[in-house]
Every structure is written in C-alpha cells, then in structure tokens.
Amino acid sequence: MRLLFKPRDAKYTGDGDLPFGKLEDTQEWKPVTNFLEQGAEMFPDKPMFKVGDRDGKIVGSWTYKETNEWANKVANSLINDFGIKKGDKVGMYMLNREEYVVSIIGIHKTGGVQVPINKDEKGERLAYVINYSEMRALIVDEGSIDFMEEIAGDLENLEVIIITSDDVPEKIGNIKVLPFSAFDNGSDANPGVDVSTSDMERCMFTSGTTGMPKGVARDHGGVVMTVRTYLQQQGIRSEDTLMSVLSLGHANAQVMALFSAMGAGATAVFFPRFSASNFWKWAADCGATCVNMLGAVAEYLWAAPDSEWDKKHNVRIMLGSPAPRNLLDFQDRFNVRVIDGYGSTEMGMVLWKDPEDHRPGSSGFPMEGYYTELRNPEDIDQVVRPFWDPTGDITPPDDAKGLLFIKPLVPNTTLNEYFKDERRTREAFDDDGFFNSDDIFARGIDGRYYFVGRFSRIRVSGENVDPVAVQDVANEYDALQEAIAVGIRLPNVSDDEIKLCVTLKSGATFDPVEFSHWMAEKVMVAMVPRFIEIYEDGFPVTATQKVKVAEIKEITDKTWDRNKAGVKFSARK
Questions:
Q1: How many CB atoms lie within 10 A of CB 535?
Q2: Which of 192, 264, 287, 338 could form a disulfide with 320 if both were Cys (CB 3.0 to 4.6 A apart)?
Q3: Helix (H) and strand (E) counts in the chain
Q4: What residues pair up with 289 in beta bridges, in sequence order?
C-alpha cells in the first residue's frame, strides 16, 4: 500500500532533508533501527541523542555511530550472555537517562519485546506487570532499587535485574543482579537478527479495567506508521532537534522523539522531568526545534511567570494533545505553532491537524492508513451522520457527537491484542475490525473531528486512568463499604481530576488524609483521588436504582479537596 506524503508549507518544515525517504510504500518498511544503522554509516559523527539532568543541563551526547555501537553491545550481550531470543520480553523501569535510550534500541535489535514500565508504578501493580508480562530480564535505575526490594518475594519468573550503576547488590531477593556495565562485554557489531515490521515490538501496560494494568501488544510496523505521519505533519527534517520532557516509558517520548529523530536522521533530547518555569530556557539551550506536550502541560506553561525565554528559542512547532484552550494567545506569547492531534497507545496517531489549518478547536482529519466513524454510545451499531457546520457555531450539538471507532487499514500497525487477554481483545474490536476508542468526538460537515471528552476512562496528569481500577483499590480500605470513582473536568483545564465517592461501613470512621497516604503507597500518584465525598445516606439513585452519575460528579460543600488540605504527592523524579 502506498501512503500519500503531504507537502508542508516551508515555514512549518525544518531544515535539511529525509535521508531515508518518506516511507510511503508500506511494502518496503523495515524496523526503525535500520535507520540508525544507516545513519551510523552515512553521518557517523552527527548527534543522535542527548540527555539533560534535572536542572536542564545537557550532561551527555551520543553520535549515530556511538549510539548504534552501544545499542549493539546491549543487544549482543542480551542474546549471548542472557539468552534473550526473538519474542522474549525485556523490561525497563527508570527515569529518562542514556541507558534507557540504548536499552530500547538494543531490545529492538535482539528481536525481543520491550516492556517499559511506568516509572510511578509500585508495590502490587509493579509486581503484576513484571510477572504477567513474562519478562526474563529487567533494567532499572538506582532509584528503583527500594521499589524492587519491596516486591522481590512476589516475583516469579524474572531471571536477572540490571541496574544503571556499578555499585549494585549481589541479589534482590533471590534474583541475580548485575551492573549495566555488564553489557560492555557485547560486540559492537550489528547483531543481524531478522526482525520485520510484523514482529512484536512492545508490550506497553496501560490502565486496566480490573484493578491491574493491561498490556498493549503492538508490532514494529506501528512505530514506522506513527514516525511516517509525524515527519509529514510536523515537517520534521534532518536538521531538527526533537525535545521531550515526557517519560520514555510512554509511547509519545519513544515514537515522537527518539524514533522520529531516527527516521529523519535528526537529533533527540530527553530530560528526566518537566519544569514549567524552565521549559523554554531548556529548549533554547538544547537547540530544540520541535517539542511535545500532553494533557495539562499547556496550562502549566501558560500559568508560569513571563520570562525572557518565552520567545528566545528556536522551537518551530509543538504537538499539543489537546491544544491549549487559549490557542491563539498561547502561540503569540511563545512564538510557536501548536498542532493538535489524537492518538492512543493502542492505535497510534489517528487524527492530526495540518499546520496550515488555523480553524480552532479541531483535532484534524484521519490519517492515511485509518478509517474512522462516529457511533451512538447508546447503540454502537448506529453510525452518526452529522450535519453540524462548525463555521457557524463552534459548539457541537448532541446529534453530531459519538464514540470514535477506528478501523486500521495497514496490517501490523495497531493493537494486536491485549496481552494474554482474549476477552478484552475481543471486546475492543467489533466483527468488522473497528476498534472502540472509548472517546467522544463530534464531526462537522467540514470533515474535521472535534474532541468532546472521554466516555469511561479519564486522564490525570497525562496518565490514562481507569476509574474502575481506582475504585477497586479504594474498596480494599477497611472503612469503606463502597467506592465509586468518577472523572471531573475543572474549568479551563485539559486534564481530569478524580473524585472518589464513598459510603462507610457501619460504625467506621474515615480520615481522608490517612486514606490518601494509604492509597499513595499502593498506586501511582495519578490514581490518588483529589476529591473525596462521603455519602452518609447512600449514593443518589434513579427510580430504577441506578446511581445518578451526573449528581455525584458535582463538587459540593461536603467534598474534601486534597489540594486545599495541603496533602501532596510527587511522582518519582
């Protein structure tokens, strides 16, 4: 299949060229590591990636040749010293750093499957991901040692833990531990494993519906598809520098920074954390021309004090998902073009706005390789046929809204399965191969799609969170009779907040501060509710005894607010 590579206006296109082509012919696609290997021969001394520290200082830079050779050492050592074979799972659990980058690439080169773990997972959920994924080896940073020791007795099949330090314990529990320098014994030659775009590339865990994360299994073709679209829509070229402050444990930082830089022969830059007050200075210092943001990042940047660096940078274009609500003011203040889009861990980037398209509010058009349609949430067999004209009224009517269903048109580019979960996989697709996104959109007669909200899951601090998973954990708390978690969208904020609605057991007492600390010990910070309300007389219900969801989503004078109480938890940094 041939995909159209749309031209971009020169002002939205970076300097340089696309040394490996435009990736238009899907029959010729190869895994993205092939671009790195070609780059190591064509421009060996060009920087492939850089890493900054917590203060925004660049502390390391690796050329295409150095990156390829280091990743080869990791790959060959995994193959020869650790017995990793094609299809074997290798995990990564750490903050952004150079070892994370070369581990991802090295695992690709073995034909193995990368299992990046959210850096904020801990306890039972962390053990679940390690065990359920069947990973044989796990690469972690020093900051992860305590978390690993806490669950060591619960780990079942893990054979070795590799730590990014030379000072490591001999064992964690009964599991062998080695320093990352053990990979230095591997050969720096390309391992030459036959890996194709139809081979499984990742098992990336996202929020689960039964209290535990679910594994999204995707092939190498999915990486190439998103890279191709990113190069087209954002105008990425070989002289661009792609900066990310997002975790390499997520698809965004991997595909839209590391892999897209590889596909364009460009440079990627990673920082271990986000700083609203320093973001633009860091961008200027590292020479960034393209940056990404998710969720409420735009609000944080907008709320930061004015700075001399607001326009003192070379950032040309910014992926915003979603774009800031005050888009025009945001673009003017920071002298940057923000391009909205929509994607998911399962499907990749499905919708994207053209940079030349200045109509506000939309997520753009479907990308080539996907067919999309809206369906009635109450009857998903009914396709929505809207006649809404967004040029007259930007507020979509109800009859223009529906659940977004997506049909992949190119094999091996989207979700293969929810790992080892036939039921969940079967439920995700209908008989015609359409995937239920669980997101509500409106579509206008202009053909553009406009994001409305999430149907069941919610997004907190850039993390997809399943409210069922939140309430499953909360219901383990002794004092609670029943818990219902709902998402609340506050005014002028792109992300959601969690409200936990609870009833108590007879005679039980409940301290929301104590509960919040208990919850934070069990789950990642994004799953800890901000709001809690006790319903002493039970939840409000309809005549048919269904909970009035709209009513429990209200913030009342009885709603406890963790922020106002000064109870704060930080993600691991």
A1: 17
A2: 338
A3: 15, 29
A4: none
CA distances from 405 to 50, 230, 354, 369, 434 (A): 38, 22, 21, 14, 6
Tokens of 518: 């208990």
Looking up tokens 């099949």 gives 157
Number of other CB atoms surrounding residue 399 within 10 Å? 13
CB 316 within 8 A of CB 289: yes
Residue partners of 34: CB distance under 8 A and separation at least 6: none
How far, in Å, CA of 234 to CA of 354, rounded? Answer: 8
Distance CA 436, CA 199 (A): 24
| Strand-pair category, 379-383 with 47-52 | unpaired
Measured distance CA(530)–CA(262) in Å, rounded: 39
pLDDT of 129-187, one tens digit each?
A: 999 999 999 999 999 999 999 999 999 999 999 999 999 999 999 999 999 999 999 99
- pTM for the model stands at 0.86
List, for residues 23-76, the tens digit of each pLDDT value.
999 999 999 999 999 999 999 999 999 999 999 999 999 999 999 999 999 999
Give the separation between CA 526 and CA 482, rounded to whole angstroms: 21
What is the distance between the alpha carbons of residues 143 and 95, in angstroms, rounded to a whole number?
Answer: 9
